[in-house]
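1st attempt posting a full record on here, be nice pls
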Amino acid sequence: METPHNMKMDSSERLQNQQATPTKQSVEIVLPVFNEEKILPLSVAKLHAFLTENVKNPWQILIADNGSEDGTREIGKKLASKYSNVLYDHIAEKGRGWSLNRCWLASKADIVSYMDIDLSTHLEAFPHMLDEIESGYDMVIGSRLISGSQVQNRTLIREITSRCYNLLIRMMFFTNFNDAQCGFKALTRNAAQGVLPKVLDRGWFFDSEILLVASRRGYRIKEIPVKWTDDPDSKVNIPKTAWNNTKGLLRLRFGGKTK
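the predicted structure (as tokens):
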């Protein structure tokens, strides 16, 4: 298991040395990837340019490679060498939950976040997300299912599956958030340290479980509308993911199993 690839200085030094308003909190954006050699360079370049232009907080990007078997590893290391505030970490275990749990718990940033590597969620919502965190919320999540959100190119089966799943969550747990699955989330480091040790899932259900555990423990959660464009090349197996998510909900509701 590798430590983050860094050619110049460690991550904490990078955050400290970036020019930003002193009162702004530092931010780490994790990009979980698995076999993303084609899209990784373009997405990192786009995200880096956007953050440079639009985010005043000191920030860094961490490419979290979940055991990729293509050229993702080599490309990730090259990107970490190219950009002073991009890091690469190779994680042997596969699963988005594995990478986020490990990276967020190890982070020294004040705010930890993640987004899908395809950047399906438009980046213009990210500064708004940070503002909400800095205003006092413990966790902020993007939503495709509330007023003000815009969704493009989504298939009917994905739309129906998502709405039914999130309705099931609200019926089972009486939550007030509408979109547990959107790959666009941020939380304070303190919230991450408090919630992550209680989250058991290391796959796709991680997104839902972290919200349910945080809600159960009284953390303040804010949902913001986003613009979202469906990726036709998404690797998500909808039936399998839906079944695993449902089993996760049943575990939390009736098994009550959290650490």
